[in-house]
Amino acid sequence: MVASGFSSWTAEARAFCGPDQDGLVRATNQAAAAKPWAGQAAMMHTGLSGPFRLTIAAIEAAVLRTSAGVYAIGHADGMGRFCVSHVGRDDQDVRAKPRDYVGSDMLFKFSYYRDARAAFEKERQLFHDISPPRNRVHPDRPRGTTLACPGCRIYQRP
Fold first, then answer.
1. Residue ranges per domain, the chain?
2. Which of 49, 153, 119, 22 has its CA nearest to residue 59?
3. Bridge partners, residue 53, by sequence
4. Could you read off the pLDDT of 32-79 as tens digits, one per residue?
């Protein structure tokens, strides 16, 4: 059974959906606010934890540490699969940025990273692998770095 409100997404958004390790996301209305849905693997094909409901309370309950990290904003499609609409990162506190998306989508995933460089590497990898529809430009490099992107030529060194 798919949770109410998850069945009306566009065909464009469905193109960015992916199954979890078991092949499906099993969405239920009984899910706790900050816990992955019952029967669903916590680590999805994105390598991020979740999904969790995209609410302030769920963000506060799920993201417990102050750390650099990556997040994905999305929703469940008609088959219950997590569909990524946006990926991003925060170089200091991964809890901060998902709050900006409350009300724009239904779910989020996240992962902590040891530093801004590792978070950038994961964000740019997801950006190139998924091509989320709400990411219009390539992720910025962490401030003060000259990191190159092996997935494209945008930050290629001369």
1. 11-130
2. 49
3. 107
4. 334 443 323 222 478 999 999 999 999 999 999 999 999 999 999 888
